[in-house]
Automatic annotation (TrEMBL):
Pfam families: Thiolase_C_1
Boundaries of every Thiolase C-terminal domain copy: 237-380
Entry's Gene Ontology molecular function annotations: acyltransferase activity, transferring groups other than amino-acyl groups
NCBIfam families per the UniProt record, alphabetical: PRK06158.1
Name the record gives this protein: Thiolase
InterPro entries reported for this sequence: Thiolase (IPR002155), Thiolase-like (IPR016039), Thiolase_C_2 (IPR055140)
Length: 385
């Protein structure tokens, strides 16, 4: 994304499908249909006006065509880019560029998964890495456990600090009626839960849920005439350094350093300007790494930054205000939900969990095993000035 796109496109409709564990017989496409209908109603836009479709799927190798067929639309622009859980934040940047270039005027970004109803199986269209497979890693748990262990060794990050990430997510989820897990959670609960891949316990790992989401994106000019409050795209950036964890250059440093820098440069902002942060928290190490790499704290200081309620309600920085993948929901790929929550915070639609005066929100997607990183900055009309 270039600085010339700043404020040129806006998200004008957001919605989730049914979440958690959905009714028997519903497919991932049914959840996409639910979310689409709700997002279009939120935007006040008819389905017939959608001429750009962006999606990714773990179920379908040609997801864009199958989704268009299911929804009954004939878009003139398709994007089926799949870079894992960050795909949908990437789609937001791509949609803005496509709208600016006249490739489409109304873009629909969608995702759906019935991973929980499918028995919790993680569907992967790719074969295991031949260099890693002989060691029998549990994908993706073992990979994130490696990064966690290295960060603990390198910087003294503690299991208690990681546990506080999960506790903060649960505190936010308790303010969100749509969250899947809302029971009280303490640091001791996290530390004492079943070990999954040392040093990560089951409470250090994201949920396995069903769910879908949808975003409607159009030009800033048109957005001003719609009923819903627009959330303007201010900046964005993408980056990847590896696909497999065995080729990650530094287990404590992610490509979010580059995606974040590009996002802030194109937006003309700094981390100090951000009021609310929505991060892809597949595991408790993720927010620690991303807060460092995006510039909210120095490298190695993520543990103290998140400790003792630092990112919980009332803390120094509101992070994952819907409860995140750790407590709100995680249907296979989570990235679209970071944007949905960011938009709702900017609109002031979050009731008990609302961050007062939110003008700038950051949504960050992560794909693969800390592989693809995509950062988007969104803002209110006031933030454009």
């Amino acid at each position: 994304m270039t600085q010339s796109l700043r404020g040129r496109a806006a998200v004008v409709g957001v919605a989730e499908s049914d979440l958690g564990e959905v009714a028997p017989g519903l497919t991932h496409l049914d959840l996409i249909g639910q979310a689409t209908a709700r997002a279009l109603a939120d935007a006040g836009i008819a389905k017939s006006e959608v001429d750009g479709l962006f999606t990714a799927s773990s179920y379908l190798p040609m997801a864009a065509m199958d989704t268009a067929e299911y929804l009954g639309i004939r878009p003139r622009h398709l994007d089926g880019t799949n870079i894992g859980g960050s795909s949908f934040v990437s789609h937001l940047l791509h949609a803005a560029a496509a709208i600016e270039q006249g490739l489409c005027s109304t873009a629909l970004i969608v995702y759906g998964s019935t991973q929980r109803s499918d028995g919790g199986r993680l569907i992967s269209p790719t074969r295991p890495d031949p260099y890693e497979e002989p060691y029998g890693p549990r994908y993706p748990l073992s990979m994130y456990a490696l990064a966690t262990s290295r960060h603990m060794y390198e910087y003294g990050t503690t299991r208690e600090q990681l546990a506080d990430v999960a506790v903060a997510a649960r505190a936010w989820a308790q303010l969100n009626p749509a969250a899947f897990e809302r029971k009280p959670l303490t640091r001791e609960d996290v530390l004492g839960s079943r070990m999954i891949s040392d040093p990560l316990t089951v409470r250090d790992c994201c949920l396995v849920t069903d769910g879908g989401g949808a975003l409607v994106v159009t030009s800033a000019e048109r957005a001003r005439d719609l009923a819903s409050e627009p959330a303007y795209l201010l900046g964005g950036g993408e980056a990847t350094w590896h696909r497999n964890i065995s080729r990650m250059p530094d287990l404590t440093l992610t490509a979010a350093t580059e995606s974040g820098r590009r996002a802030f440069e194109t937006a003309g902002l700094t981390p100090a300007d951000v009021d609310v942060v929505e991060l892809y928290d597949a595991f408790t190490i993720n927010p620690v790494l991303f807060l460092e790499d995006l510039g909210f704290c120095a490298k190695g200081e993520g543990g103290p930054f998140v400790a003792d309620g630092g990112i919980a309600p009332g803390g120094r920085l509101p992070v994952n205000t819907n409860g995140g993948g750790l407590s709100y929901g995680h249907p296979g790929m989570y990235g679209i939900f970071t944007v949905i929550e960011a938009v709702r915070q900017l609109r002031g639609d979050c009731d008990e969990r609302q961050v007062d005066g939110a003008r700038v929100a950051l949504a960050h997607g992560n794909g693969g095993v800390l592989s693809s990183q995509v950062t988007a900055l969104l803002g209110t009309a006031d933030a454009l000035n």
